[in-house]
Amino acid sequence: MNQAVLQDLAPEHVEVEICRADELAQRRGLASELDEMWSYVGKQVEPRWLWHAIDHHSGTVLAYVFGRRKDAVFLQLQALLEPFGITRFYTDGWGAYERHIAPEQHHVGKENTQKIESNHINLRTRITRLVRRTICFSKTTTMHDLVIGLFINRYEFGVAL
Fold it and tell me: Which of 10, 70, 81, 149 is the most exposed place for a label (fewest CB within 10 A)?
């Protein structure tokens, strides 16, 4: 307990609320981290982006989509996230997020996207197609999306196909 803060704090400014942890999570609402990760198909001038969202508290992957770095692809991800009822989105400030997420729900900054950035490092370490300088790359978008999608489904969703 921080005694210095307690000494300067007036009792009328303190509000205590006691509730169960599951009630608090429900009251707080679901928070999600959103980000996109670059890779390429065939050659570097043909970029392919993995857009995905994770739960801010647990780090669980909620949804992902592949495509260009365009608003239409983000809208696909947003549609997949709709059933979760997310009340806060943490992002890096890319324009698509600012255009399509309500300002009161959108929080920009790297301090709240650490889990998803860590997830990127893990994906780049495990899937050589995602490493920036590599000789392992996909020749078709179908194979690119299949390989990465199968990995995410297996290790994030627990679905062995």
Answer: 10
Q: Which residue has the tokens 């890319």?
A: 94
**Up-side HSE of residue 48: CA atoms within 13 Å toward CB?**
21
Q: Distance between terminal CA atoms of the chain?
A: 50
> Could you tell me which of 72, 29, 37 has the C-alpha nearest to residue 53?
37
Alpha-carbon distance of 9 to 24, in angstroms, equals 25
Angle (CA) 33-37-43 rounded to 5° is 170
Tell me the domain boundaries of the chain.
16-155
Tell me which residue of 38, 90, 99, 43 sits closest to 66, measured CA to CA. Answer: 38
Q: What is the pLDDT of residue 133?
A: 66
Collapsed DSSP state (helix, strand, coil) of residue 138: strand
Coil/strand/helix, residue 92: coil
At the second CATH level, the architecture of 16-155 is 2-Layer Sandwich (3.30)
28-83 pLDDT, tens digit each: 668 999 999 888 787 777 788 899 999 998 888 999 999 998 999 999 999 999 98
